Amino acid sequence: MPTPSLTHSPISGFPTPTDTVARAEHDSAWTPDLPGRRPGDGERAISGNRQADWAFADAFVAEDDALVRARARSHVAGLRPVSPGTGAALRLLAAAGGAKAAVEIGTGTGVSGIHLLRGMRQDGLLTTVDSEPDRQQLAREAYREAGFAANRSRFICGRALDVLPRLTDGGYDLVFCDADRREYLDYLDEALRLLRPGGVVCFEGAFGRGRALDAAHHDDEALRLRELMRVVRDSPGLAPVLLPTDDGLLCAVRA
Ligand SMILES: C[S@@+](CC[C@H](N)C(=O)[O-])C[C@H]1O[C@@H](n2cnc3c(N)ncnc32)[C@H](O)[C@@H]1O
């Protein structure tokens, strides 16, 4: 089956909100035809203080000692690992898809890798890419501490856009991106080539720490993340979702 084609439109503006998120309360036309919904319900849900709900959801699945140690090493290294909630979502996606082969772009010290490995099949192989060998060494140790045999992971040290073209077309069930946000559109092209039909691509940090969701920000990263959201949402060959865990986990299933 051919890879779904993506045409990247020029980077500009903010993705147009869908009807269910941004209509004003006085606009009665926005209310979707759902039982129990009234004009303004969605507006109140968006504008209310949801911080406590989100914090609860993010901490809902507890992390064990191996993850706590990997997370601590990540902070010492000055990195931002996936949150517990994002890690749980990655594990769920890997498990739901019965992932046997996954690619991670941005190994860090191994927090997301442990979550992915825990969701993957017991005979699954995680290929993880990072430009920094010291970090990969820490991740190797973290996987070992989490109980994974060395043959469950393949470490490739290099820049993502040098490494990804060398990986096998259609050979992967899941691609997780957590490296240079400005390269995410390129990672998407590579991921669509790497994924089998029905495979999942995920991008950590889609919100750009709030900058990508605020049209006042025009820095390169914010613009590129907006464009990524638009392309992933509007491509006919993808079934997308934007999960609001931590800094936003943008996911899509490849047709
Ligand atoms: C946020 S950290 C990854 C955290 C990891 N996913 C976790 O949850 O533990 C981002 C990592 O991407 C790596 N990185 C950044 N740009 C890269 C690139 N262009 N190619 C490969 N790795 C890159 C960094 O060295 C860093 O280890």
UniProtKB/TrEMBL annotation:
Basic and acidic residues composition-biased segments: 35-44
Region (Disordered): 1-20, 25-45
Protein name: Predicted O-methyltransferase YrrM
GO process annotations (BP): methylation
Keyword Cell division included in the entry's annotation: no
GO molecular function terms attached to this record: O-methyltransferase activity; S-adenosylmethionine-dependent methyltransferase activity
Assigned keywords, A-Z: Methyltransferase, S-adenosyl-L-methionine, Transferase
Gene3D superfamilies recorded: Vaccinia Virus protein VP39
Organism: Actinacidiphila rubida
Pfam families, A to Z: Methyltransf_3
Matching PANTHER family: O-METHYLTRANSFERASE RV1220C-RELATED, O-METHYLTRANSFERASE-RELATED
Keyword Membrane among UniProt keywords: no
CDD domains: AdoMet_MTases (cd02440)
Top-level taxon of origin: Bacteria
Biased composition (Polar residues): 1-19
PROSITE patterns: SAM_OMT_I
